[in-house]
Design a protein that fits this description.
The chain is of the alpha/beta class and 281 residues long. The chain is 46% helix and 17% strand. Strands 7-6-5-4-3-2-1-8 form an eight-stranded mixed beta sheet. The radius of gyration is 18 Å and the shape is globular. The protein starts with a strand and ends with a helix. The structure holds adenosine monophosphate, fe (iii) ion (2 copies) and zinc ion. The site of zinc ion has 5 residues, from loops.
Length: 281
């Protein structure tokens, strides 16, 4: 049997709806051999997921998804195979969480100025122990029937230029890439097809980017081909995953993107090489 992996999954430790153990159980149901949990700005799911994965014979790779900005353009960077107890990383994540909590109050203020009956408590109820984000706001707007769908919430209110948009802590791409590298990880550009800024790739490469997410639930075959070509031209590692948020966006995406295990082998191999470089270089 050809082994397969999904390297982009969120849990309720960020803005997904599955617990780490539920993710592992679904991964088994979907016949995945390996997964990476990539919560936004959090590594809190990793210990539980690692334990559940081990008991079910599924391989789990440490992952995270961090946001950076180039001017107003948001760039998502995935990190893999890093030390998830790295104190510099953990310190930064704590700061990012605090900024995100503050941001919810600012978003709510903007929604209230538009005369919507939305309160921070409604949103934090949904956040639970997760990392508060726009998806929680969008779900609250749907629950309150202010919008008909998550997509509408983003389109009308939550994207740049729209009346309830608030940016997060504006880390630069260089800062985010260095943060992952110093924790011994491999920085990978997430869903470039959603970012639609291929012109930024050479800059990211200069800053230490090592890989690109070619396979993603929102990349059609044409886009996969395009980014595979870019990966080849720039010598980038190829990764992929579903970007499953549990049921937060409607249907479950876990199992919809399965990449060959060989790609994970290459990622792990590269990670070992970079770690050697960190130690000896
Ligand atoms: P944040 O990190 O708080 O800025 O929120 C980003 C989250 O919102 C990510 O989980 C994205 O998957 C989600 N998101 C961003 N844009 C959209 C969209 N148009 N439709 C659905 N989810 C979105
Ligand atoms: Fe998300
Ligand atoms: Fe993302
Ligand atoms: Zn994601």
């Amino acid at each position: 049997m050809n082994r397969v992996a999904d390297l982009h999954i969120h849990t309720l430790e960020s803005d997904g709806t599955f617990t780490p153990t539920e993710v592992v159980l679904k991964a088994r149901d979907q016949k995945l051999d390996a997964i990476a949990i990539t919560d936004h700005d959090s590594v809190k799911a990793l210990d539980e997921a690692r334990e559940s994965a081990q008991s079910l014979g599924i391989e789990m790779i440490a992952g995270i998804e961090l946001s950076a900005y180039v001017d107003d353009c948001e760039v998502h960077i995935l990190g893999y195979c890093f030390d998830d107890k790295d104190p510099v990383l953990l310190g930064k994540l704590q700061l990012l969480r605090e900024v995100r909590e503050q941001r919810i109050f600012e978003i709510v203020k903007k929604l209230q100025a538009l005369n919507f009956d939305v309160h921070a408590e409604d949103i934090f109820l949904l956040v639970g122990k997760g990392v508060p984000g726009r998806l929680h706001v969008a779900r609250t707007l749907v629950a309150k029937k202010i919008v008909g769908s998550i997509a509408e919430a983003f389109k009308r209110f939550l994207t740049p230029g729209k009346p309830a948009y608030v940016p997060k802590e504006k880390l630069s791409t260089g800062e985010v890439i260095r943060l992952i590298l110093q924790a011994g990880g491999v920085p990978v550009l997430a869903h470039p097809g959603l970012m639609k800024r291929d012109d930024l790739i050479p800059k990211l490469l200069n800053e230490g980017l090592k890989g690109i997410e070619v396979y993603h639930s929102e990349h059609v075959t044409e886009k996969q081909r395009h980014y595979l070509e870019i990966a080849k031209n720039f010598g980038l590692i190829v990764t992929g995953g579903s970007d499953c948020h549990g049921l937060a966006k409607g249907k479950m995406l876990l199992g919809t993107v399965k990449i060959p295990y060989d790609l994970l082998e290459l990622l792990k191999h590269a990670s070992r090489n970079y770690k050697e470089g960190l130690i000896h270089g």
